[in-house]
Amino acid sequence: MILCKYIFLLFFTIAIAGYASAQKNNYKIAYNVLEDTAKDNYDIYIMNMDGSGKKNITNTAGVEWIYHAYEDKLFFISDRDTCLRCYFLYSMNTEGNNVKKLSNLQLEDSWMSSRKKGTEMIVLGRTGKLRNQLFLINLNNGSYIQITNDTLSTKRDPMFIPGENEIVMAYRPDKTVRKTVPDELWKFSLKENADGTIQLGEDKLQLTYFPKSDTTTAWYEYHAGPPQWNSKYKFISYLSKQNNQTQIYTVVPDLKKHWQATYTKQITSDSLSSGWHNWSADGKWLVMDKSTYEGKGFDIYLMNFKTKKTIQLSDSWKTEQGPVFVLIK
Fold first, then answer.
1. CA 230 – CA 288 distance, rounded (Å)
2. Largest alpha-carbon pair distance within the chain?
3. Cβ 223 vs Cβ 240: under 8 Å
4. 197 CB neighbour count, 10 Å cutoff
5. What is the number of other CB atoms lying within 10 angstroms of the CB of residue 156?
6. What's the rounded Cα separation, in Å, for the pair 64 and 45?
7. Cα R_g (the chain), whole angstroms
8. Exposed, middle or buried, 243 (CB in 10 Å: 0-12/13-18/19+)?
9. φ and ψ at residue 223, rounded to 5 degrees
10. Judging by DSSP bridges, how do beta strands 130-138 and 144-146 pair with one another?
11. Of 4, 85, 195, 258, which has the fewest beta carbons less than 10 angstroms from its beta carbon?
């Protein structure tokens, strides 16, 4: 009887381990690599969750940089076939095939986000001399709607939050004070009008407040970096340089239901700085780039958010940054 129980527990343990492994292997990680500094050449690589199978899937001159993935489709900006750092939106699969230019809207160098099952994307773009405005792109036909027409504020890195009618982005109401007032994360509603136009609602909410006592961060460095959504724990993460080191912090989109007595919580802390990052679709895994205090030696790391166990996935002389989870069907 004891032997049967032992055998049952053994098979149960093996089954659970196999299931966990299978769940983990549902993801791959795409990330950006500086191939040649002199030529300003960035390529996109992909690898398995354990760091194996690294592969360059763009292999082109110029800049290719991934900012978003929906399931197994990768969305990236590229200056191929145009002027240096003149970016447009493209998509491809995990093998680097089926590359498609998605719109003729010129983009800024900014994180982006999708809604409606990956058919619409909110981006930061430009028209003529008007720069850094929010647009919504229809990914099926490439058409786009301009959301903002505002030359006073600064905006970057827009992200949809659940419900898909609200966004969080780094924002500063008045760009003329950028050297004294940092940009912070703000939440905005999207108001869709009967005539098909879209605008930001008036009910904006500031989510982050950089410590006024911290003087270690230069005005041009991240005070509140690109927001990322964790679907399991329902919080927004972002990077912030505080006390002379960049780490990842969290805040919830509704400050009435914050995690602790304070609005923000730091979730990474070690001898290395933690920067651009992304959450797996199930919210269990955090992938990020880490570097020294001086911003050197960027590599990709993976954290199990529950256990906080962190492993290094890349280790080369190249700069490797901005990882994104890709869900493999």
1. 14
2. 79
3. yes
4. 11
5. 18
6. 10
7. 21
8. exposed
9. -95, -40
10. antiparallel
11. 195
Share of the chain above pLDDT 70, in %: 89
Using one digit for the tens of pLDDT, what is the confidence trace for 273-314?
Answer: 999 999 999 999 999 999 986 767 899 999 999 999 999 999
Query: Which residue pairs, CB below 8 angstroms and at least 24 apart, start in 98-103?
Result: 102/75, 102/137, 102/139, 102/142, 103/137, 103/139, 103/142, 103/143, 103/144
Torsion-angle region of residue 264: left (phi > 0), alpha (psi -120 to 50) or beta? beta
**Alpha carbons 250 and 240: distance in angstroms, whole number:** 10
- For the record, the structure tokens of 31 come out as 């990330």
pTM of the complete model beyond 0.85: yes
Cα separation, 150 vs 33, whole angstroms:
34
Cβ(327)–Cβ(283) below 8 Å = no
3-state secondary structure of 48: strand
- The pLDDT assigned to 92 comes to 98
Residues in CB range of 67: below 8 A, 6 or more apart: 75, 76, 77, 110, 111, 112, 322, 324
